[in-house]
Amino acid sequence: MASALELEGIHFAYPGRPSILAGASLTVAEGDRIALVGPNGSGKSTLLRIAVGLLRPNAGRVTGFGRPRASEAEFQDLRRDVGLVFQDPDDQLFCPTVIEDMAFGPLNLGQSRAEALATSEAVLEELDLMHLRNRVTHHLSGGEKRLVTLATVLAMRPKVLLLDEPTNALDPENAARLLSILRGLDIALVLVSHDAAFRAQLELREMRLLEGRLAAR
């Protein structure tokens, strides 16, 4: 199976703090399903941000779809195919309404406004979220925001989906909806979650991040 995303020998430290990643390596094949587990502060969220170029490693290499990624232009290109769902939806939702947030990504891919709206509505229909189309984003419930944030990323039609603690503060009904959505996706998934029951239902291959390195569980 072809490799979609590779992180090799990643080292990273936040300014003035000890190293959080010390040679972490991860390979994500097309269609792969992986859970990153480990203690709080072990660097799981940091690794996801490095994967899409939101943080740059002190050492190591990121390769996406066979091409090294180092410059912002190279990572912008990668982010067309690798989508990250942030841990806090408010970090990702910034347009006045749901449909405008949904259309933002497709518009940046070069679609016309009509095409971007059609793409966005198709994703909302697929996820059974069409009733949220015209809602004001900051009036959504926490669970609705999480589902809409996922929808905005899926509107980009990514080949790899990275999710950072997607079940945080989700009620059981919305957690079940999220589980159904993720089960139905035919793309590679990398999930950071402390929710062992949720991970088990997705039947993910688990990798443990400890002392700055990743190893299979």
TrEMBL record:
Q: Where is the ABC transporter domain?
A: 5-217
Q: Name one GO cellular component term.
A: ATP-binding cassette (ABC) transporter complex
PROSITE patterns for the chain: ABC_TRANSPORTER_1, ABC_TRANSPORTER_2
Keywords from UniProt, A to Z, are: ATP-binding, Nucleotide-binding, Transport
Q: Name one GO molecular function term.
A: ATPase-coupled transmembrane transporter activity
Query: Which CDD domains does the record match to this protein?
Result: ABC_cobalt_CbiO_domain1 (cd03225)
Biological classification of the source: Bacteria, Pseudomonadati, Pseudomonadota, Alphaproteobacteria, Rhodobacterales
Please name the SUPFAM superfamilies in this protein's record: P-loop containing nucleoside triphosphate hydrolases
Whether Transport counts among this entry's keywords is: yes
Is Transport there in the keyword field?
Answer: yes
Stretch forming the signal peptide = none
Organism in which the protein naturally occurs: Rhodobacter maris
InterPro entries on file: AAA+_ATPase, ABC_transporter-like_ATP-bd, ABC_transporter-like_CS, ABC_transpr_CbiO/EcfA_su, ECF_ABC_transporter_ATP-bd, P-loop_NTPase
Q: Which protein family is it in?
A: Belongs to the ABC transporter superfamily.
- Which Pfam family, giving just one, matches this sequence? ABC_tran
Q: What is this protein called?
A: Cobalt/nickel transport system ATP-binding protein
